[in-house]
Design brief:
The complex is a heterodimer.
Chain A (H helix, E strand, L loop, with lengths): L13 H4 L17 H16 L11 H18 L3 E3 L10 E5 L8 H14 L5 E5 L1 H5 L11 E3 L2 H9 L3 E4 L3 H5 L16 H9 L3 E7 L6 E4 L2 H6 L2 H5 L6 E4 L3 E4 L13 E4 L5 H5 L5 H22 L7
Parallel strand pairs in A: 1-10, 2-5, 2-6, 3-4, 3-5
Antiparallel strand pairs in A: 6-10, 7-8, 8-9
Helix pairs in contact in A: 3-4, 6-8
Chain B lengths: L1 E8 L3 H8 L5 H4 L3 E7 L9 E8 L2 E13 L3 E6 L4 E11 L2 E11 L4 H47 L8
Antiparallel strand pairs in B: 1-7, 2-3, 3-4, 4-5, 5-6, 6-7
Classes of the chains: A alpha/beta, B alpha+beta.
């Protein structure tokens, strides 16, 4: 089913213009969770939540993106030596779910490199949205991400963007994958999250796997710190399942990566694979687990091939 | 940023024009070009539109362009409709029985400020290299075509017996 592509970066339908919610009632902090630490984190959450204006597809600003392309180009070409392949595999029109593996801690160079490549290849006129954790969007100084089309990660937001005919980039692994130890850098790890498949089936859009390598070499990631996050109740309070520990510039030992870090100039290579039309390939009622295994295996094979091209860490 | 390169092709301007005005040939001689496809029904001529992409650094840049000047065997110019701002021109002039071919490209992103200037300046080396190699490949292809045309003419002349001589 072909949908009309938005021509100006704004949603073509009334539905696309409506306000989107950024956090559901399930995100409400539990009373008394975590004692003093819980209260403190609850206050932090309240402060950050107050900074999250309601998400809206109209916040994407094609002119802003266009004017910032030279900056992105300098960063991606000179610092990360970005190499993006296979964009011809992305359908030219209509909604498409781009499913990527995620690397690089809270600063994710693979997203930056791919966003630049997508925007120059298809033009800033093509609506393109990326789903990001609520905390990313609420952080001071990161509100500009909304102009690039970044919206809070929620099924409703993804659904609305796809209904508007946008290309939507999701990272099913999210915070779980992005903080995996550096020695697992060549591993696709979605943590069993399969919501993206249900979304693609519901919206009847193809999935385009996007595989990136290099991002996990921008720092030395030591641990996700899942136990620490659980003890502190971060999962319940901030939807954070991890409290990552890494060695990164300029902090040295970096716990939480909340203030970000200076990424090492690792070479980033990204490859978009041919689209997967779920009902064509898996029948009218595809089995979600089977599709999940297929997508992950496909991406892992590609990641292995990309990893095999690298001769040295960071340098690529 | 404006970049220009030129070359002399040992062939008449009409033959060079056949190459530069035919969108199907672009991917065969343009260096760094990853896409040059016709948009719409009009393949060539004034007003024809193409979607083109040129690999520069970590991005494929370009967009939708439209031919704004189309003077056979002399000038072909285009300007951008979407994508980065660009103006390009093929300028072909006869010089001593050969063709002097110049390829010009002006590009940039309006409103991008100092970073835009830095990026354009750094990209110019790559763009210039693409233009130079494109002209070299065009020269090779046109001169090869010229040799084929001349050989075909010689074959044809040999096959046709002079008047008064039986075939």
């Amino acid at each position: 089913m072909t949908r009309a592509t938005a021509t100006n970066g704004h949603g073509p339908t009334e539905a696309a213009r409506r306000r989107l919610h950024t956090a559901g009632p399930e995100d409400a902090p539990e009373a008394g969770a975590g004692g003093v630490v819980g209260s403190l984190l609850g206050a932090v959450k309240g402060l950050l939540a107050g900074r999250i204006p309601p998400a809206d597809l109209d916040e994407r600003d094609p002119d802003y993106i266009r004017e910032s392309l030279p900056r992105l180009w300098l960063l991606c070409s000179l610092y990360f030596r970005g190499d993006v392949r296979g964009l011809g595999n992305v359908p030219e029109e209509g909604g498409v779910l781009l499913v990527g593996n995620h690397s690089g801690g809270n600063l994710t160079p693979d997203t930056v490199v791919f966003t630049l490549a997508f925007s120059t290849y298809f033009g800033v006129e093509r609506a393109f949205h990326q789903l990001a954790h609520n905390l990313v969007l609420s952080f001071p100084g990161l509100s500009y991400l909304r102009k690039y089309g970044t919206v809070a990660a929620s099924p409703d937001n993804a659904r609305t963007a796809l209904e508007a005919g946008s290309a939507v980039l999701v990272y099913p692994g999210g915070d779980y994958e992005v903080h995996r130890p550096s020695w697992h850098r060549h591993r696709v790890d979605f943590g069993g999250r399969k919501g993206f498949i249900r979304l693609a089936l519901e919206q009847d859009v193809p999935i385009v796997p996007v595989v990136a390598v290099g991002g996990q070499e921008t720092a030395l990631f030591l641990s996700r710190g899942e136990s620490l996050a659980q003890v502190l109740g971060l999962d319940r309070l901030l939807r954070l399942k991890v409290l990552p520990i890494s060695l990164a510039l300029p902090w040295g030992l970096n716990v939480g990566d909340m203030l970000g870090h200076i990424p090492l100039p690792a070479k980033i290579t990204v490859e978009a694979l041919p689209p997967i039309h779920l009902r064509e390939e898996f029948g009218p009622d595809p089995d979600v687990d089977e599709v999940y295994d297929h997508v992950v295996r496909l991406m892992q094979d590609t990641l292995d091939a990309l990893a095999a091209e690298r001769r040295l860490p960071v340098l690529g | 940023m404006r970049v220009a390169e030129s070359i002399t092709v040992t062939a008449p301007p009409e033959l060079v024009w056949d190459h530069v005005s035919d969108p199907k040939r672009y991917l065969h001689f343009m260096s760094g070009m990853t896409r040059w496809s016709v948009e719409g029904d009009q393949e060539t001529g004034l007003g024809a539109r193409y979607r083109m992409l040129l690999r520069v650094g970590s991005a494929e840049v370009g967009g939708l362009i439209e031919l704004v000047e189309f003077t056979p065997a002399r000038d072909l110019a285009w300007t951008s409709v979407t994508g980065i701002d660009q103006r390009g021109r093929w300028r072909i002039r006869e010089r001593g029985g050969a063709s002097h071919v110049e390829l010009r490209l002006q590009y940039g992103v309006a409103g991008s400020g100092i970073w835009g200037w830095v990026a354009e300046t750094l990209a110019s080396r790559t763009v210039r290299g693409h233009l130079r190699r494109s002209l070299q490949q065009l020269k090779r292809q046109v001169e090869h075509e010229q040799l084929r045309v001349q050989a075909a003419a010689r074959r044809s002349a040999r096959a046709t017996p002079p008047p008064g001589r039986p075939a």
